[in-house]
Amino acid sequence: MKSLKTTSKIKKIALEFSFYYEIRKKYRQLAVKRKLTRQQKKEILSFYRRVIGRRVPLIWHKFLYSRTGRYSPYYIPVGVYRSEMIGRMNNFPFKDAYADKNVAELLFPDVIQPKTFVKNINHHFYADEKAISREEAIARCQNLDDAILKPSLLTRGEGVRRISVHDGVTNCQGKRIEQLFDEYERDFILQEAVRQHERMNALNPASVNTIRLLTYRRDMEIELLYAVIRIGRAGQVIDNESAGGISTLINPDGTLGRYAFGAPGYDLVEKTDSGITLEGYAIPSFQEVVETAKKLHYRLPHFNLAAWDFAVGEQGEPVFIEWNADPDLSQSAFGPGFGENPEAFLKEIYQNRNTRHSYW
Questions:
Q1: Domain ranges of the chain
Q2: Bridge-partner residues for 305, per DSSP?
Q3: What percent of the chain lies above the pLDDT cut of 70?
Q4: Is the pLDDT assigned to residue 66 strictly greater than 50?
Q5: Which fold has domain 93-105+196-325?
Q6: pTM over 0.90
Q7: How far is 95 from 303, CA to CA, in rounded Å?
Q8: Is 255 exposed, middle or buried (0-12, 13-18, 19+ CB in 10 A)?
Q9: Is the Cα torsion angle 255, 329, 335, 267 positive or negative in sign?
Q10: 136-149 mean pLDDT
Q11: HEC states along the chain?
C-alpha cells in the first residue's frame, strides 16, 4: 500500500505533466514560434536551480516568448506554479469554503456587490441570508430583466449564463427557471447583472468587463503584483480568456497597454471588437478598486495570494464580483507573474510547506 507521501508525489507529478502537455498543444497553435538561444536556456535553468533547486521545463518560456515577443527567464512555469507554488502561498484545505461565491456577502459585507436573488448551497436554497424552500426560490425568480446565473464553486467563467425571465420562462431555449435550477443541481448563485460604467461598457457591451488584480500578503502589507483587464468578444457574455475573452495589462496610472491576448491565435490585439483602441485607454476608478482589494485581502489570513475580479459601476463605484484562491497567472498580458526580480519572493515561499499535498 502506497504511503500518503508517495501518493501525493505521484499526483503532483501528474498535475505538472498535465499542464506541460496542455501548453505544448497551445504552443503548436501559435503562428509565430520563437526558439530560445543557448544562453537564454542557460539563464532560465540556472535561475530555477538556484531558487527552487531543480530544472523546469522550458516550454512555458518558449510559449510566452513566441506569443509576446518578450523574453524573460522569470516567467513562471504553470505546471510548477500549480503543483508546488500556490500550495505554499495558500492553505488549500480552506480554499473551496472561503472562495465559494455564495459566502462573499458574509466575508465582505461592506463592499458593493451585485444584488443576489437566490443562492443554492449544498442543495439548500437561501435568500436574504435565510433558508427558503425550492418553491419559494422559484417564485422569487419568475420575472427578472437581466441576471447572471453561475456555479458558485467553479472558476474561469465555467457555467456562467446571462438570463432574463418572464412569467417563469427564460431566454435559454424557452426553458423554465426550475429547469435551469435542475441543470445546475447544487452550489450556484443567481444575481442581478452589473450595470457598468460607460467606459467599461464601451469595451464590449455584451459582457461585464472586469478588472483582475493579483495581490500578495507579506507580513502586514498587501502588495499589488499586477493588474489586467478582461474584455469579452463581440456578443459574448464571458470576459475570461479561457472562455474566449481577451486581456491586457493595466498600467499603474490606470491606462491600458498596447496589446491584448486571447486564446492562441488571438494575439497582439490592438482594438476591441467594438472598435476601442486599447493603448492609453483610461479605466475609471482604478486606484479605488486597488485599495478596495487590498482592504479585503486582510480578511483572508489563510491566503497570501489572492486574485480579485471587480467591475466598475455606472457611477464609478468598485463592484466586487468574486475572488479566487487558485488563480491563473496572466503572463501573456502582464509579463512574468511575480515580476522581473522574483528571486527573493520565490525563495520566501519555498520555505513554506506545500499544503496542496494535504488537499490531495
A1: 4-90+347-359, 93-105+196-325, 115-192
A2: 216
A3: 95
A4: yes
A5: D-amino Acid Aminotransferase; Chain A, domain 1 (3.30.470)
A6: yes
A7: 8
A8: middle
A9: negative
A10: 97
A11: CCCHHHHHHHHHHHHHHHHHHHHHHHHHHCCCCCCCCHHHHHHHHHHHHHHHCCCCCCHHHHHHHHHHCCCCCCCCCHHHHHHHHHHHHECHHHHHHHHCHHHHHHHCCCCCCCCEEEEEECCEEEECCEEECHHHHHHHCCCEEEEEEEECCCCCCCCCEEEEEECCEECCCCCEHHHHHHHHCCCEEEEECCCECHHHHCCCCCCCCEEEEEEEEECCEEEEEEEEEEECCCCCCCCCHHHCCEEEEECCCCEECCCEECCCCCCCECECCCCCECCCCECCCHHHHHHHHHHHHCCCCCECEEEEEEEEECCCCEEEEEEECCCCCCCCCCCCCCCCCCHHHHHHHCCCCCCHHHHC
77 is written with which cell numbers? 512555469
Question: Where do we find the cell 536556456?
Answer: 41
